[in-house]
Amino acid sequence: MYNLGERAQFFRDGIRLHSRPTSMIYSGHATMKYVSRGQAPPAVMSGVLKAIKCGFADLIFVYRHPLDSLLTNWIWWRTLIRDRILISGISQVYKNTDDLCADLDRNFLEFKAFAEGDPEFFASAPGQGIRIIFMDPQWTKGHRFLSLPEFVEEMELFLQFATLPLRLEDFEIDASREFSKILKVMSVDLDLSRIQVAPPMTKPYRYLAVKDKVPQFKSFIDGLNAETKRRIEKIGYDIGV
After folding, report:
1. pLDDT for position 104
2. 30 falls within a domain
3. Which element (helix H / strand E) includes 192?
4. Which of 39, 216, 217, 228 gives 20 to 30 Å between its CA and that of 46?
């Protein structure tokens, strides 16, 4: 939005469908196979994929290590449920990784329930009033969030269809370089020397430090099923065990 000039007026936070070419730019969360709380459902993504196959839409997929995503998603949802606060990252909740590790160790059963997609994790989720602020309530009502194996499978599916896949970790190395790839897909002609893109606020591969400090978390990683481990490796990551 800061670098696209007039094109930024077409940006919307959310996923929508169009039956013909459009200038709109949509950003949001969605699934291709599993219904998940807080995600546009597979029926919506099916329409998006048809547009991509027809050649009048592009899918830019930004992803990160699934275990980092798991920690962030757990903290994001538990903060919303417990404190009714929307956060943009772990650093808003914990001063450092040691604080995160201590909290994870104390509440590991809760974390494990979330990682397994247990709907009881959301038993005390806030009402529709707060949900409607940031997502369509029809995409959240009565649903749980993805289990880790489902989350990894969804990542694999998105990578199969992505016009441009982008690793969040690569934005940590050179944010402007990665952003320039988006401009190319969107056919935006800008002077790349003048764009300003801040690196992500998140810390890449934080899960490794957590694994070393929280034995229960390491055991959880060790116990992942073979198919999930295979998918993580196919995506291009290892699990550091």
Report:
1. 98
2. yes
3. none
4. 228
Contact of 45 with 17, CB cutoff 8 Å: no
**How many domains in the chain?**
1
Average pLDDT, the chain: 89
Task: Give the phi and the psi of residue 50 in degrees, each rounded to 5.
Answer: -60, -40
8 Å CB contact between 108 and 216: yes
Q: Can you tell me which residue has the tokens 């200038």?
A: 23
Whether residue 241 lies inside any domain: the answer is no
Taking residue 220's Cβ as centre, other Cβ atoms within 10 Å add up to 18
- Which of 142-146, 170-174, 236-240 shows the lowest per-residue confidence on average (mean pLDDT)? 142-146
| Residues 6 or more apart whose Cβ sits within 8 Å of residue 101 | 209, 210, 213, 214
pTM: 0.90
How many angstroms separate the CA atoms of 227 and 234, rounded? 10
Is there a domain that residue 211 lies in?
yes
Q: What's the rounded mean pLDDT across residues 6-33?
A: 91
Q: How far is CA 86 from CA 76, 124, 130, 155, 195, in A?
A: 7, 16, 10, 24, 29
Non-local (6+) Cβ contacts of 148 within 8 A are 66, 70, 115, 116, 117, 224, 228
**Domain span at 21:** 5-235
Q: Which residues does residue 165 pair with via DSSP β-bridges, in sequence order? A: 61
Quote the distance between the C-alpha of residue 143 and its chain's center: 17
Helix axes 206-213, 215-222, angle to 10 degrees: 110
Residue 240 within any structural domain of the chain: no
Token code pair at residue 7? 């094109």
